[in-house]
Each structure stands twice: as structure tokens, then as C-alpha cells.
Amino acid sequence: MTSDEFRNLSRQKASAYSLLLQALWQDAHGDWQSAHELAQEIETPDGAWVHAYLHRKEGDEFNAIYWYRRAGRPVGKADFGEEWGSIVTELLQRQPATLSGAIG
């Protein structure tokens, strides 16, 4: 599945994916607050990466830098759509194969 296909999933189909992917889906659909609430609960490097992206998008560079460091990732410099797509693509590659038919 591509990041564009993921973005176009219904809310119900997106809910079958990891909480971090759900957070990114929420962000893509204009609900930054819900995305942030989900991401901040995931205390993993990937959770820190999504959290960092969300703070960068919010305009809170200081907080974003902190979370990129926690994620072990370079500070995002790409436009937000490109960074969103990169994160989604990487997280989708790690998703269990049982969800591969969830497009729709």
C-alpha cells in the first residue's frame, strides 16, 4: 500500500492499523489534536518520530528538535507532505501482512 492509498482509507479501515499510523491518518484528515494525543502515548523511537513531525508541523521547533533527538532521527527539513509520506511508507512496511487487503 502506498501512503496515498493509506490517506484515502476510510476511518474504519484506518483503525485496523497501528496507533501511530492512525495518528498520521488523523493528521492527514485535519485533526492534529487527535493525532498528537495518540502519538504522545507511544513511547518508542517511532512514536517520538511521529511526535516530532507533529510538533514541527505545529510550528514548535524547539519541542520538535527534542523529539527528533529521542527518535534518533535527523530534524525534518522536507515539506510536511513529503515527511508525512516518508513516515507512513516506513511504518506501513512494518505493518503485519494481514492488513494488506484493507484498501478501500
Radius of gyration, rounded? 13 Å
Low-pLDDT segments, ≥5 res: none
Q: How does the overall form come out from the CA principal axes?
A: globular
Mean pLDDT: 91
- Helix-strand topology string: HHHHHHH
Query: Helix share of residues?
Result: 55-70%
* CATH class group: Mainly Alpha
CATH architecture: Alpha Horseshoe
- Termini gap: 11 Å
The multimeric state of the shown protein is single chain
The tally of domains stands at 1
**CATH T-level fold name:** Serine Threonine Protein Phosphatase 5, Tetratricopeptide repeat
**Can you summarize the main beta sheet?**
none
Please provide the count of β strands: 0
Strand content: under 5%
Number of helices: 7
Q: Which class of secondary structure composition applies to the elements?
A: mainly alpha
Observed structural traits:
104 residues; mainly alpha; Serine Threonine Protein Phosphatase 5, Tetratricopeptide repeat; 7 helices
Description:
With 104 residues, this protein is mainly α. It has a single domain, classed as Serine Threonine Protein Phosphatase 5, Tetratricopeptide repeat (Alpha Horseshoe). The protein has helices spanning 3-7, 11-14, 19-28, 32-39, 45-58, 61-71, 80-93. The termini are close together. The mean pLDDT is 91.
Question: Which helices and strands, and how do they pair?
Answer:
Blueprint: H1 3-7, H2 11-14, H3 19-28, H4 32-39, H5 45-58, H6 61-71, H7 80-93
Helix pairs in contact: 3-4, 3-5, 3-7, 4-5, 5-6, 5-7
